[in-house]
What we know:
- By secondary structure, the chain is an alpha/beta fold.
- It contains 10 helices and 12 strands.
- α3 crosses α8.
- It is globular and about 50 Å long.
Amino acid sequence: MTRVRSIFLSDIHLGTRACQAERLLAFLREHESEYLFLVGDIIDFWAMGRRGVYWTAAMNTVVQKVLKRARAGVQVVLVPGNHDEALRDYVDSTFGSIRLHRDYEHTGADGRRYLVLHGDEFDAVTKYHRWLAVLGDHGYAFLVRANILLSALRRRFGINGYWSPAGYAKRKVKKAVNFICDFEESVARSVKERGLDGAICGHIHAAAIKQVNGTAYVNCGDWVDSCTAIVEHLDGRMELVQWTSARSPVFDADDEVEALAPLPDSVLAAMNIAESETAQESLRSTPGFRLSPE
């Protein structure tokens, strides 16, 4: 296991078929840290509200593994995003030793100060034209489903490597590239005005570590398409890690125990799942998942 100071994860989108929870579990098994930052869109309430709850044992294990680390003394901070914005009602609260913040100032081991934020407030489409953001989300979901089909075909025919049509579209479509550049500049300008050294964000599913107008810009990427994370090493150096292979079975012995454990009522309340009979029935039918008793 690799020991690092901090792990930054964003845009996991638990609750959707596109979420690559198995790869995330493999990443977490091989990395331990003092700090764990969940930088928004961890649980996808948008998708769960429109298409129903899709919740696998692997997704449940991700939640349980994060809770287990928090109980073990890892400092876990959750910064909600636009897809899990319902959690913003609980900002400045603590759930299962996980602290919720609207944004968070993190001081690296090298003394550099970063603003940890999801970043949707710098996306004019999400902020002012929610209907267009939802439409774009449908289009992106279609490309991600194509990713899943393509990956299955590549495995069937023994083709190694990983290629994503969603990622290719983001890199090649001019307007998408321009949007990403505008987003990066807006985030960097805002943190510079606050007198900070850099920003660590998510939202646009475009992982990066770069300097933007003299300010450190760090984006965690996602666990839908690119499977990327940011790790801070013990000396404060930031590294972008791309995890394209599960590298190990979906569950190990500890994971099986975790997968069968109930989620705490506080977490279910925050997710607003416990109040929905339909959602409860969907979750109860998922192998390895059960709700906490009354």
